[in-house]
């Protein structure tokens, strides 16, 4: 039964990634997803639940920041209005898409190698995150760098090198793979926090805020599994 559940989770994640981003205008050069970021501690967000039940966000919304100890979470639909993005902010959005794909592909690879269900659950979440970021890329007319790229492949050489390094680190054993998860989520939190600075577009602000909350759930889940 557990094997069937794990396989189903991987299939759900893979299916979500199969939703290609829409074609957009000029391609943007993306920054390396995982290079040189500060370590961020796990800080439960407003929707944090320490057990397996749901943790509801501010205002009682059942979609904003629902999380569990296993790292699974749900995000609200993009309800905020479109704003404007600078060229630098569009480049950051491109980098976010690559980070979400890298996280998904890493966790899916580890789920196929190790028996920790946390990888399956969070891989499925990362697939939903990527779909959301792709929606923003389409909305702002920015080319999606992840379209057509198979698992573990990236159009940006720096992103590819970072992915390959993290994948190799995680092959050393389950404990090492969990530590890779910690590193990825700490990086995501740092990047999203930086990206929110000076951001005025309501829809992008909503998505980045929710993604940061999700990464806090994921980070805490990986840290919890690391102590088992």
UniProtKB/TrEMBL annotation:
Alphabetical list of InterPro entries matching this protein: DUF2202, Ferritin-like, Ferritin-like_SF, TAT_signal
In terms of superkingdom, the source organism counts as Bacteria
User: What residues does the DUF2202 domain cover?
Assistant: 91-223
Q: Which UniProt keywords apply?
A: Signal
Signal sequence annotation: 1-29
Keyword RNA-binding present in the record's keywords: the answer is: no
Which Pfam family, any one, appears in the UniProt record? DUF2202
Gene3D superfamilies for this protein: 1.20.1260.10
Name recorded for this polypeptide: DUF2202 domain-containing protein
Q: Which organism is it from?
A: Actinoplanes derwentensis
């Amino acid at each position: 039964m557990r094997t069937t559940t794990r396989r189903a989770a991987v299939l759900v994640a893979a299916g979500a990634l199969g939703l290609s981003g829409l074609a957009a205008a000029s391609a943007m050069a993306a920054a390396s997803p995982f290079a040189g970021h500060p370590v961020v501690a796990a800080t439960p967000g407003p929707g944090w639940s320490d057990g397996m039940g749901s943790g509801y966000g501010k205002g009682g919304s059942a979609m904003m920041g629902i999380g569990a100890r296993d790292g699974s979470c749900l995000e609200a639909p993009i309800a905020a209005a479109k704003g404007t993005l600078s060229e630098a902010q569009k480049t950051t959005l491109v980098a976010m898409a690559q980070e979400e794909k890298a996280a998904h592909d890493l966790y899916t690879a580890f789920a196929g190698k190790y028996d920790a269900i946390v990888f399956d659950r969070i891989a499925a979440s990362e697939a939903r995150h990527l779909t959301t970021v792709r929606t923003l890329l389409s909305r702002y007319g920015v080319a999606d760098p992840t379209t057509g790229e198979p698992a573990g492949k990236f159009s940006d050489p720096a992103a590819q090198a970072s992915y390959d390094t993290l994948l190799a680190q995680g092959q050393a054993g389950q404990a090492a793979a969990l530590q890779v998860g910690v590193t990825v989520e700490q990086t995501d939190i740092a990047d999203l926090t930086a990206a929110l600075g000076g951001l005025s577009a309501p829809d992008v602000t909503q998505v980045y805020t929710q993604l940061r909350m999700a990464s806090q759930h994921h980070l805490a889940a990986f840290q919890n599994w690391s102590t088992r």
